[in-house]
Amino acid sequence: YSFGAAQYILPRVIGTFQPVLGDITDWASIVKHARLMIAFGGLALKNAQVTSGGAGVHSLETWLRRAKEAGIEFISISPLKSDAPEFLGAQWIAIRPNTDTALMLAMAHTLLTQERYDAQFVSRHCTGFDTFRRYLLGLDDGLPKSADWAAAITGVPPETIRDLSRRAAAAPTMMTCAWSLQRAHHGEQPYWAIIALAAMLGGIGLPGTGFAFGHGSTNGIGVPRSDIAGPELPLPLNPARSMIPVARMADMLLSPGESYAFNGRQYAYPEIRLIYWAGGNPFHHHQDLNRLQRAWQKPQTVIVHDSWWTPTTRHADIVLPATTPLERNDVGGSSRDSFVLAMHRAIAPVGSAMNDFDIFGALAQRLGYESEFTAGRDEMGWCQWVYDQVRASATAKGVALPGFQQFWAEGFIELPPPERDYVLFEDFRRDPERYPLKTPSGRIEIASDAVAGFEYPDCPAHPKWIPPAEWLGSEFAARWPMHLVTHQPASRLHSQMDPGPISRGQKIAGREPVRISPSDAEKRNIRDGDVVRVFNSRGACLAGAIVDADVMPGVVVMATGAWFDPASASGEPERHGNPNVLTLDIGSSALAQATSALTALVEIERWNAPAPAVRAFMPPELAVA
Question: Has this prediction a pTM greater than 0.85?
């Protein structure tokens, strides 16, 4: 769900998916060398509260302040002004959701027609530019991708687009794309387009400039870090040798045997009779939850591990109580963070809760595979094994780390900083023949013969503006005139800790807030604190209104993660404000089949009836031990 579209388009374009995971030009290089940073999707500090695997240091604000002090100018391109912190003094360019690709194409057109692009870099380091050039000029479709063309799509004035292009060409520029841009219909296109645009600007492989992904999407992106491996478990080969794109889960359950295209091949959905879910919360992170509820009824049995009565455990036949991190020993750390953490158990397991490892170990014993699963190690044995892999990686790079017992006693280690700033594709830029990319051509594929060969109408041979299924320029906007932007909450991580006091404290009338512009609120007679109904053809939910001038007109904004509290009767709204009752459950394209969560139109109105009680945090009545 986090970056499914990027995972399959980037290897086709630059030969690797690693830049999305944090393998990008680091902040130290940006601060020293960039003078302009253009952030498509913003640089929201709230998202940097967390890092997968654990955060030793919260770093984004520090680096943003250093960049500001170094004289870097910031431009935030987003429907939400607050996606960039106030201290940056960033220029806000309000853009219609899902239209960033059109803006990037118009910037590329401006560079091309004003002869401001780096023709030498494009010629030596890229392939497919002639095809892309014909598209930008409209030589085949009669539509030049000019600033005037893009203005009608994006809502960004044409002179703003031309000025943005000129400024990017005139100064050392880093362009970054939030992860959110590719969680949309045709989400592959903005990531492909920003690479093409960065290639035309000629900054790829130079210190501090080029393109990046994920700044402001999570903590640790772009932080200088040595290449010592982070803590990780071995990943054995799946003996089933089968998989589906996770965002197509409901399709699989509803349509067994149906054929679908994915990444250049044709597959068929299997028939699933049992779901076993450990970790995650599909009734939070999947789209169109009413549809998922129907799909969830198809298997004969659903088994879930969890510590809480989450919406997913409420939809399970068997719930196996699992320990929380406070009830187990573990090793924490991230490839984006310099700390490795000894996660000591704080309390004994509560009630009948067991570690996931012990649950699976007991099942493996009953099936006759205990030794294959445990590899002869218990909980602490695996903690030491994980740490020893980090230590071995450090030793191979000439760094001495303490032994496991010392690490465990002291509680953490900090890896040494890298010896030099990291610049993405530095070697490739210097000598593309000696250091080719892992693409068929060895170069940046602005147009891809491989993708062209798939003949996917929704993911053609080069970056292209393709209208999404729902957007403010579509025919559906006459009935559903508001674009729903769903973003990460400031008061929790996804749906985790939603029952806690911090998350509950930001709710309105016990429900998730929805932010709406003053002009749109006035049209609907909505005031701060009103309970409102947000709805479309897929469903409806109740939320608490916040009138917010930081939201552009035509857009409403809701955080994800309010625990799903479905209606008791058909046609009634979800009670708690889970926006995924409204989102669209279609694949990004036939290439990646990723989530399209940010492609959704809605309407909003005051709720004038008594609001039903929220029951999301009450234990289910029918649960038995």
Answer: yes
